[in-house]
Amino acid sequence: MKVIKNIFLTIAAIIHAIYKTIDKFIIIPVTKFFIMIRDKFGKRTDRFEKWLVKKNTLIFISLLLAILLFLYVDSESTIIINNSAEVLYGQKVKATYNSNAYVVEGLPESVDVTLIGRKVDLYLAKQLSKGSVTADLSKLKEGTHSITLDYDCSINSVEYKLDPSFVNITIYPKVSETRTATIDIINTNKLNKKLSIADVTLDEKEIVIKGSEHTLSKVSTVKALVDVSKMINPDIGVKELGDIKLVAYDDSGNVVKNIEIEPNKLSAKITIESPKKEVPLRVIPTGSLQFGKAIDSMTTSVNKITVYGDKDILDSLDNIPVEVDISGLNEDKTYDVIISKPAGIKELSTTNAKVTIRLGTEITKEIEDIHIETINLNPNYKAVAIGENSSKTTVVVKGTKNVLDSIDSTMITAKVDLKDYTEGEREATVKVEGTDNRATYTSKTTKIKVRITKK
Description:
This protein has helices at residues 2-41, 47-52, 55-82, 119-128, 213-216, 311-315, 401-404, and strands at 83-96, 102-105, 110-118, 133-136, 143-148, 150-151, 159-163, 166-173, 175-180, 182-186, 196-202, 206-211, 221-227, 237-249, 260-262, 265-273, 276-286, 293-300, 304-309, 320-325, 333-338, 345-348, 352-361, 363-375, 381-386, 392-399, 412-417, 424-434, 440-443, 447-454. By secondary structure, the chain is α+β, with helices and mostly antiparallel strands. It folds into 5 domains: 2-80, no CATH class; 83-173, RNA Polymerase Alpha Subunit, Chain A, domain 2; 176-273, RNA Polymerase Alpha Subunit, Chain A, domain 2, CATH 2.170.120.40; 276-357, YbbR-like domain (RNA Polymerase Alpha Subunit, Chain A, domain 2, Beta Complex); 363-454, RNA Polymerase Alpha Subunit, Chain A, domain 2, CATH 2.170.120. The strands form 7 sheets. A 7-stranded mixed β-sheet has the order 25-30-28-27-24-26-29. A hairpin with a 6-residue loop joins strand 27 (412-417) and strand 28 (424-434). The N and C termini lie far apart (123 Å). Residues 76-81 have low confidence and may be disordered.
């Protein structure tokens, strides 16, 4: 019973609060208003006036006005609640103007459209609308203009707002230039590693670019982007590729926009080949053997390897180097080695090999009169050795008797690197090399003096 009593007390308090609110904000102001009218028009002389100024009459009139006000506010809130909004992003802007004579800059490619209305109307608007934003520029001439964008909305009960709705544009006269398209082959990494693009021939090299004069002046080159990833089952032979895109670039390699390219796409004939070459492995020992030991023979499980790559790289490739660490070795040993691809080589026929090194007793041999060459000297200078016998050296060769018997002076080179050397008397370090990697080579002359002068 106590709970029920508390509920009734709460309801009574709420009703009392509502009554006080109505009394304070509606009944009392309305009563004061009619009392003011009564006072203004004098004494109550007729029944209407007497009835009007009665307290009960004023209460009923105030209540009626309150009900009418409530109905009005309720109807307005219903309209607001029932309205919805939906944003259509990226609506294309269609401009009407003489595109053969003019270029328009500053006009956005697309804008966002906000539709406002009842949900059912919004649904119909989206279904029936052409979904396009229009700009009529047909009456505008060269110069800068502020224009209004319009949206084609077929439902009158739906409101719309554009973002942006006003834009500033500039109209320029259209000019044209003839350019020669260059070729840029892309996505070659997606081609079979054994294949290479030998040649690309465009069906048309001369193209026309159109736009405003100041925009065309930015164009440094127009490239035909030959995308080999679009070729279907590429193989050796001549293939055709269509829809080759043309792109204009400025001096910094950025794409130049707001220009037209005619034709906008080309076709090409692509010659695909598979350049290859067989080269031997060249074993390069690193480190030092145990004292008194020398390499007598080095054999590989793979004599030659087929390499694939561009023709100019293959022409300069004579062998593939493989390093083997022989530090502290004192007996015969077989190594498993991984063959790495030289720079520019796309594919190898094999990437693994075995290298067998057999040792023998080390002996020494001297080879005299090895000419000392200069390399990497600036072409504007010339160098002359200073001192007697400074142009030649004696080379100490160490290896097994079998190896040393096969080595002569033609297999040894001595060089001094004069890169970055300038005029004057300079000292340079002598370095010697031999074609047979089983032996080691040391120059008796470690440094020489050279005089460098201008030619």
